[in-house]
Amino acid sequence: MTGATQTISLPLTSFAGANLNAIRAIVFGSFSTRGAWEIGQTQLVCSSGSTQPTSSTKTSSVPVTTPTIAPTTAGPTTLASSTLKTLVPTTSSAPPGTCSNILIDDFASQSRLTFLFYNAQLLPSSDDGTMAPVADRADTFTSVIVANNALTLTPANANSYWYTQLGCVKATNTYGGIGLTITAARGTTMTIELQTSKSCTTDNPTSIDVSSADLGWTFDGTAKYYTIPFSKFSGLDTDHLVTLLFSGISKPVTFGPIAVYCGNTGSAYPVPSTAAVVQPSSTVPATTGPSALVIDTFTGADSNNLGFYHGGDDENLFKRTSGKLTINTKGNSDLSWYTQISGGCTDLTPNDNGYLHIVYTGSNSFSIALQQHNPTCNPDINPYPYTWDSVEASRYSNSGKTDIYVPLSHFAIDRKKTIGFALKGFFTSTTTVVTKMEIVKTVPNGFLVPSKLSSAPLLFACTRPNSFAFAIDDGSPEFAQRVVSSIDAAGIKVTFFTVGAPLLDASTNLTNVYKTMLSRGHQIAYHSYTHPPMEGLPSLAAIDWEIQEDIKAVSKTLGITSTYFRPPFGTEGARVRQRLAALIPNVKFIAWSVDVQDWLWAMTATPEKQLTNFQADVNKGGNLVVMHYLYDSTVSYLPQFIDIAKKTGKQLMRVDQCMEDPNAPAL
After folding, report:
1. pTM for the whole thing?
2. Which domains does the chain have, with CATH numbers?
3. Looking at the record, which segments are called Disordered (predicted)?
4. What's the pLDDT tens digit per position in 164-189?
5. In Å, what is the CA distance from 458 to each residue of 301, 336, 345, 455, 590?
């Protein structure tokens, strides 16, 4: 490779042993360097070297994405591999003689669409990476952006496309077409493709294209309802509709909910209204502490006014200049700024009646945390920090959005072992500027101190003496049986944190896998419905939807409930912990103190570093694991991980058992 655009010819004879009379796919893999690769037009050419494609009856094969749950730990994610799926025929659920529209996608969730690659029917939907790229987001890599029940597509070039599968709709004499609202600039054009397959598969379907001009579509920058009448597609097999595909999109477009409509006249699918979550608004009397202490005025490069460390996870997003800290994480809720009040453990309990005071301007859409050291105050022992509690900055702000006052007693940790404060969980792209952090004796006259909201405890380690727990997050269904076999062979009990949506997708077989695990005494717990960075969701209602839909999915498929939750990507903040506590009594927010780092090493030339990391964290005293069955190497190392854990002499058990839960099975 030269580093520039070049044309490569690969003789098929180079693939020793391949059946050249049955070519199914070309796979690009084992990329030797990290970063972006661009692969352009790929085609079979005659042996003479001609690159002119031959004409044929138009068929196409849109890849079907089998859901693959990406790692919990923040880091690069792996897109699911493309496979083929037989679709279940979709018909109206209305009584005989009536008809109801079939919702294809209401764009209720970014992560459902661009992380799990599902539409509302839990059928595959994707741009296959063809839209314009985006950076600094955990839930999408391309400009397929969901917000307010709408989808915005920004094409990278003329080859960009986006598809959504229909589930083999039988439309004849019942459904007249597909409708959606579209917002697009004047002059925008696109091609609309419908794919059919008599076998109800996406393997080599028949495709018929119609241009937006042929459908009579014109745009003026406002949202309007448009229909895709099946009658406009000559020769369309309306008994076996499998895919809707948009291509050749000339300018950015925004789609509203997509639905198959009854009869010959469509109407916009009504977006379900979502009531705002109302939190308690009670207040508590103001108190007065013994003393004041200036912590940080952001004048030092690496230390605060106390001489202790301060700094952020990304110096480009946390900028300290001229006595102020400017923060804009671009909505990445996984990033934090830290300022310590001690080089070890500090007892803050004498100041329990005092307040953390933050002087700021801009957004208060973030969390404030107070971190607790581990029992021996030793930073070389895992976990470090041992835990922290987070509160919602906006609840403690004055109405002018200039000052925040948080009672130190509202941080539910052991305040005798305090490390310092963190600003975290930023969930908007609006800038926050902080000029001072300090402890003050009391609040100004007229400031109403809000009550402390219940919050799920954040747990990084087992509490039962001499215990060790494997907590395994969802991964690729193809590896599930190997994980089961390794656990059975070791004779141990573990905990699985499962994402709800793939349980409802029969093609993953995860429901059957987890039913088997339940029958063998393993624990199943919650991991969200679609695996978003939950603290980064735009509203409390969106957070509630993830929690409640996960509860429903687990209950429907496995017949159980749980009081244990692990956050996708490990992303934590006050809002998600408060909503968990409000919706699940006695819930526990489970993190980890042993990280395999499969997301970092599994697909590199040194996958054995997963073993190195596991051993290092165990040597530091870690006893609660995070890993995924996403990668072949990780699954292959599982028996060795178990052996390392057993050699500690600790007893291996489920998470609820290692947390001394009275409702857990006896050891």
Report:
1. 0.86
2. 86-262 (2.60.120), 287-448 (2.60.120.430), 458-658 (3.20.20.370)
3. 48-75
4. 999 999 999 999 999 999 999 999 99
5. 31, 17, 19, 9, 6
